[in-house]
Structure formats: C-alpha cells, structure tokens
Amino acid sequence: MTSVPHRFAPVQRLLHWLMALCIIAMLFIGVGMVSTVMPEYLPLILIHKTLGVALLVLVLVRLALRLHLGAPPLPVDLPPAIKLGARLSHLLLYGLMIVMPLLGLGMLWAAAYPVVLFGGIEIPALLPQSDRVHTLLWNAHVYLGLAFFAVVLLHLAAALFHALVRRDGVFATISPLPQRERMKPTE
Amino acid sequence: MNQPGRLERSSLGWLILIAAVLGGSAAAFAYTAGWLTPGRLTPDRMIAALTPPSGPPLGHRRNHAKGICFTGMFEANGNGVELSRAKVFVQGSYPVLGRFNLGTADPNAVDATVRVRGMGLQISAADGEEWRMAMINPPIFAVSTPEAFHDLLVAAGKKDPEAMKTFIAANPEFAAFAAWSKAAPWTGSYAEEPYNSLNSFVFTNAKGEQRAVRWSLVPTAEPTSIAQAELKKRGPDFLEREITDRVQSAPQRWTMVTTVADPGDPIADPSRAWPENRRKVQVGTLVVQRIEPERDGPCRDINFDPTVLPQGIRVSDDPFPAARSSVYRKSYDLRAAEASDYPRTEVAKP
C-alpha cells in the first residue's frame, strides 16, 4: 500500500452503511418470518432470499475494495487487547457476511426447495437434497444468525464507544457524514 | 475534548446511553422473534397443536403423516393457457411426483379411521420450474382462518367434550365440514377420491388478466361407496395396498378442473364453497403411473408447500397458503433432522 488513508474511501463508506441497514433488516426479518404464520410470511421470506443473495454479491465487492484500498490505522494509543478485539470482530463480521447467504442457499438446495428471488429470478441448485446436509446448514444458519446479531451489537457498542466516549477519530473514518479536518488538536 | 484513552465523569452518561441502545436493540430483536409474546401463533405452536398426546411422529410429516409416493405425468390440454401463463398449461406432457396421504399425525394410523384423504403433487415444467400443491378430498375446508384451525386442533385434542362445543359455537363455519365428515360416502381407494385445492390462487394470463381460481382433481375412476365398518375389515394399510395393485394393472387418471371466481365470491375463506354455476375449465389430466413406498420413495424428501408456484400463478387473499408454507417448512426441518428415526432401507442415497 502506497499511502495510509485517513478515512475509508467514499465507496467503502457507502457500502458499509448500505449493507449495515440491509444486514440489520435481514436479521430482524429472519427471526420474524420463522415465528409467524401470517400472510406476511411470504413477502418476508422473498425479501430475505433476494436481499441475502444481493448481500452476498455486495460483500464480495466490499472485500475486494478493502483488500485494494485498505483501511485507516487504529489510534496508536489503543490498548493492544482492544486492537486485537477490533481485528477479530471485523474478521468475524466479514466471515459471517460471506457465510450466511451461502448457508441460506445451501439449506434451501438441500431441502429441494426451488430458490426463486424477487422478479422470478431462479438460482439453480448446486447441492442435491439431503436430510443431513439440510439439518447441518439450517442449524448453522440459525445459530450463526443469532451470533451475527450479537456481533453486530458488539460492533455498534464499540462504534458508539469510539464516537462518544473515546472520541478518538475511529468513528470518523467510517462516518457517513462529511467530516471537518480529521483530529484537530484543538476543538 | 476528552483525552483519548481516558474516561471522564461525563462519559458515564454516554455509557448509559450505549447500554440503552444495546438493550433496546436486543429487546426489539427478541420481540420480533416472538420470544416476548408467547401468545403469537407461530409455526411451533401450530405443530405443538398437531402433535398427538403420544408424541410427535419422529421423522415424519407433522400432519398427513401417513402416505405413499407416486410418479406419472400431467397432460395439459392447452385450455389453461387462457387463464394462466404457467408453462405447465401449454399443451404437452409434464413429469409429476406426488403423494397420496391421510389427514392424520399418526404414520401408523388405521386407514379406515381417517376421514380426510389428500394428495401432494408437484408438476415440473421443461425448464425445471415447479408447481407444488397439497389437496384434500372434502369440498370445503373446516375453518376460515389459520387461527381457527389452531383452535380446532386444540379443542379436538381435549378430553373435555365441552371443548368442541365451545369451538363450534365460536366458529359456526365448521358446521359445513362436520356435515361432510358425517355424511360423505367412504370409498375403498385413493383413486376414487377427488382432491381439491380449497385455497384460492390468482392466475395471470399472457395478457396480464388476473382471475381468482380454485382447482380440483376429479377422478375418472367411478367412486363406490363402502361402509366405514366394511373398510375396517380390510386391514390397517388397505389403501396403500389397493392403490399399488390398481396402478400396477393400469395408470389412474384425474381431470384437473379449474373453477373461476365471479366478483364477490369468497376468495379469502376456504370454508365457503363457490356457487356451482361458476365457470369451470378442464386444463389437463393427471396420470399416475407408478407407486412407491414412502420410506425410500421420491416424495419423501419433498415438502408439498402450496406456495411453490410457477410464474402465472400466485397466492390470493386466502391466508392459508402462507400459514401452510410456514408450518410445512418447520415440519420439514424437524423431520429432516429426525431422519434416523425413519431410516431408509436403501444403503446409499444419491
């Protein structure tokens, strides 16, 4: 990397906030749809499938951008344990963003359900029907989904901690708002 | 501005705010998931109501648990194209996979004790697009709403005879189904039964015209009325034996008849029949060519979810298909996880 960026690039920030909204919606839709028998079940599951596939595409774009453009460094005074936690939680978030849609698709394929998205787009099955595979992927999708929500909450807590308590400029690197000059020594 | 890395007294307020944001988010999530509202009608509660006192039928469907697989063809005569642009209505032959079944949560039920007989069916278009449905032989459904169906299951499961009386008083539409149940003749064969969608769906044709429809598979075999007491003498599995022998000697046929609603017909309530004089269109013939036991058969792994629909067919205001889809999905998840309780006899499955 030639130069260390102060903030994430605008396209990275845009993707972050767009995906954040979609992922939170997905998590709520996910737990909501499996606990209802109301007519909303059908549009919810259609949105869940369509958005899930869209998010899979978006996370790959985002990962490519991250590898290409990099990320701003964490503050030097951040304790090493917190730095490690930040790195691990971001790895975990990326991992979940990639794995959750794949598990979702896989569990539908393994149950011999046709995967039809909004607009009638059909995703061909890449796995044969299998009770065992379906059960494995379905359990993974459910429990990792709950874990995903927990990690999102942790991420939110850390973001707010940086923005409100530490005020160390970390939040500004991803903030959707235009920023004044970063880290003015006096304010 | 704070010194980075050092907390000040004013930080306490922010920390409390952060805790409140997290707590609120977690509470909203728990509410959405139904964890805070035990009264919500969830698929789990519907399945609990379906479960007999002896316990769930492990490895089997939670309702219509006893069944037998069939394969064959759907021969479309082309008349359906006027109603729906679904590819399976274009004149031609389409492979089908299905399942004759009994409306009971007991996979070992004695055939002559189960009033409702059903058929799960999947028709595949040339490009693999699927249409799945699950139909039963009564001409109307027992109740108007999924909530009432849950209440019916709960009432029927109670030993208290007053429970059913209370249910019927609250759900007077049940009378029509009760009358059918009492008076309709029993037959000695799955091949002599009609199978009705009961739920309404919306067909859209190539011009974009939409019509609410219901459909029935009307048997070409002449139904012969046989007393229930007589059927009880035929053994616990006589229906499966009979259909196996019958299809072995000749394919069995049903005519698919679509009924088109007039404006004002009850679309959202499957407990109410449409008047007899509604327009009927024969769209094709189901030909059942081969019967296979469910244990290793091709229907075992299929969830006959009635919302798996091709382009040109969609759900209507009828609340049941969504509820059925939700509950069938849960039932599938459960039985797939319990597959070892219903072991296949074949060693390997592709």
Q: Your description of this structure?
A:
The complex is a heterodimer of chains A (187) and B (350). Chain A contains 4 helices and 2 strands. Chain A is mostly helical. In chain A, helix 2 (41-69) crosses helix 3. Residues 182-187 of chain A have low confidence and may be disordered. The radius of gyration of chain A is 19 Å and the shape is elongated. A two-stranded antiparallel ribbon of chain A has the order 1-2. Helix content of chain A is 64%, strand content 2%. Chain A has one domain (10-173): Fumarate Reductase Cytochrome B subunit. Chain B has 350 residues and is of the alpha+beta class. Chain B has one domain (41-341): Catalase HpII,  Chain A, domain 1 (Beta Barrel), CATH 2.40.180.10. Chain B is 27% helix and 23% strand. Chain B has 8 helices and 10 strands. Chain B has helices spanning 11-32, 43-50, 146-156, 161-170, 174-183, 228-232, 238-249, 320-337; strands at 66-76, 92-102, 117-124, 130-136, 195-196, 201-204, 210-219, 252-260, 280-293, 313-315. In chain B, strands 1, 2, 3, 4, 5, 6, 7, 8, 9 and 10 form a 10-stranded antiparallel sheet that branches. In chain B, strand 6 (201-204) and strand 7 form a beta hairpin. The longest helix of chain B is centred in the first third of the chain and has 22 residues, at 11-32. Chain B starts with 10 loop residues before the first helix and ends in a 13-residue tail after the last helix. The mean pLDDT of chain B is 95.
